[in-house]
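Exam revision sheet. Question 4 asks you to relate a sequence to its structure. Input first:
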Amino acid sequence: MTQAFGDAAATGSVALAARRDHKHGMPAAPATPGGGARVYNSGTVPVAASTETVVTFDSERSDSAAYHSTSSNTGRLTIPTGGAGRFSVTGTVEWAASALGTLRRLSIRLNGTTYIAKDEITSIINAVLPQTVTTIYDLADGDYVELVAFQDTVGSVNLGASGNYSPEFALTLGGVGSAGIDNWLIDINPAAGSHGNTNWSTLNTSGGIGGSDTESSGAQNDEIYWDLGVSGGTWDITVVYYRGNNRGIATVSVDGVSAGTIDFYNASAVVNQIGTITGVSITAGKRRLKLKMATKNGSSSSYFGTIQWVQLRRTA
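Answer key, structure tokens:
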């Protein structure tokens, strides 16, 4: 059975062998590098004199993950749950001609208070003035950015609705790093791809996300590991796994240094379990992530480990 992100959980048959037909409730798909949104206003936007004005947008050219709404807070691009990362943010406008004022300013503002980029130009009398502001910034789940315009005449000046460039606002999620290493999310399907192991094998019909689970032999100190290119920072490590009365305790380590443990034991078989070790400090470079069934609960009859998915998410 193959599963996808967003699948709901479903309990399998009672018999041990038939439990392979269960389904795991899985998180929504992570943000895709290159995803984002570009929005615009189909009409002019007036900017009052000497007033920081949030530019609003009534239309969307693209929106890969509901970053924007055309019905509420239309000036915002908001990072959805699970979408944190490093973004390129750009706004572009064209100021209408005016005989007054000396300053035109375009800014990107974070969460209604913090300015993360500004561009200022000097007004030219009776000339239409294009202006662009752009930056790259790390945005967390729930953060939002706005495009803010300012001018210093004695009256209102419009931002014109011009072509495909005014007023427009866009953000794009940067790519996941490899050799350059600036990554925020690493997903691992234990049954696929490159890994090293001692006495772990693939169960091809058990219903993991990639169509398979990976299970140890039950011997003490069975281990499985992955060599990863990782950016420096603070990471959360999440494991999706089985629990049962013959399961061990997994020691999770990075380059041989223990990050914490996850106890796979439970008196009865339970699927779709998620264990997370938070606040793991990792130095940038090639690092070895390892799970080792070194110990067990006193009530467990063995050291088995069965995992469906591993995820590393950088938080700082």
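Marking note for examiners. The chain has two domains: 17-30+180-314, 36-173.
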